[in-house]
C-alpha cells in the first residue's frame, strides 16, 4: 500500500474541515437538492449510506470511495416521488480500467412541478416548470484491501423561469474495511464548491457543503448490520429555530431543573441532531430489510399536533433474476411520505454466452 499517498489524502481531508465550519443550514444555501438521498437504500436507512462497501452502485453518490472494480459495467436508475408533484431521478453507470481505477457517470434531477405565471393583479400568463440538474463524474482507487479513496466532480444547473444558476462542486471520500469485513467506516466531504453564476447578479449564495462520518458493524453470527451516520459535522449547533418552525427541541414542564442538568440535556440534544441510526437484516444475498431513524428530521419537521412517522424510514431490497430492486419509504414532511425505487443491474450478465 502507498502509505505516503494515503497520508497526503487524509491530511488534505482534515485540513479542509475547519474551513467548512462557517457553512450554514437552511435558506442560506443554493442547490440544496444535492443533500437529498439519491438511492432507495440510503433513504430507508435514514439518509445516506457512506460506510458499506458491498458493490452497490447506488451508494457511490453518497461516498465516491464506494466505487469498486466489481462495479464494472453496472448501471442503476432511481425514481423518487418526493412531495406532492415534486419528483426526483438519478441514473449512473460505472466502468473499471485496470491499473487506472474505476469511473462512474451519473445524472441527478429534480422537477418541482407545474406553476402558473401571474402578476400582482392576478392576470395569468401561462404555465412554467422549475427544475435542477447535476452531472457527476466519480473516480475511486483501492490503495489496499482496507483503504479506498474517491472523488466526484459535479456540474450543476438550476432553472426557475427567468432565473438560472450554474455551479461546480466536488465530493471527497475515504473508506476503511476491517480484515474480517465485519466493521467498516466512511468519511465524506460533500458539495465543496462554488456558485459560478448566481440567480441575481452580485448575490452569490453558499454551497450545501457537508462533512459526514459513518460506521457499520455486521454481527458475526447473525444476519444483521447496524449503521451510524454523523452528518453536518462542519457545524456543531444545527438546532436552529427556523428549521424547527418555532417548536423548541427541548421542552420543560413546570418542574424546576438544575442549570447543570439543562446544559447536559442541551448538549446531548445537539449531538443527537447529528445522528442517524439504521439497521439492515440480511438473511440472504437476495433479500434485505431496512429501518432507519433520523433524529434531526423528526425534530425539525414536527409541530404541536404530532410528528407522525417523521424521522423514521423503512425499506427492502430483493434480487429477481439479474435485477436488484430496492424500495425506501421516508417522511420528509408532515404533508406525506416519499417513495424511493432503485433498479440496478450488471449489464455484463445480459450478454449472450
Q: Biggest β-sheet, characterized? A: 14 strands, antiparallel, barrel
Helix content: 10-25%
Strand content: over 45%
Globally, the shape reads globular
Distance between the termini: 37 Å
> Class by helix and strand content?
mainly beta
The strand order across the widest sheet is 1-2-3-4-5-6-7-8-9-10-11-12-13-14
- The overall average pLDDT, rounded, is 84
Number of DSSP helical runs: 4
Number of strands: 14
> What is the radius of gyration computed over CA atoms, rounded to a whole number of angstroms?
21 Å
Low-confidence stretches: 20-27, 241-260
Q: Encode the helix/strand succession as letters.
A: HHEEEEEEEEEHEEHEEE
Concise description?
The chain has 353 residues and is mainly beta.
Kindly describe this structure.
This protein is mainly β. Helix content is 11%, strand content 48%. It has helices at 3-16, 40-44, 259-272, 295-300; strands at 74-83, 86-97, 101-118, 124-142, 147-160, 163-177, 183-197, 210-218, 224-230, 275-284, 287-294, 312-320, 323-333, 336-346.
Provide the fold topology.
Layout: H1 3-16, H2 40-44, E1 74-83, E2 86-97, E3 101-118, E4 124-142, E5 147-160, E6 163-177, E7 183-197, E8 210-218, E9 224-230, H3 259-272, E10 275-284, E11 287-294, H4 295-300, E12 312-320, E13 323-333, E14 336-346
Antiparallel strand pairs: 1-2, 1-14, 2-3, 3-4, 4-5, 5-6, 6-7, 7-8, 8-9, 9-10, 10-11, 11-12, 12-13, 13-14
Keyword list:
single chain; 353 residues; mainly beta; globular
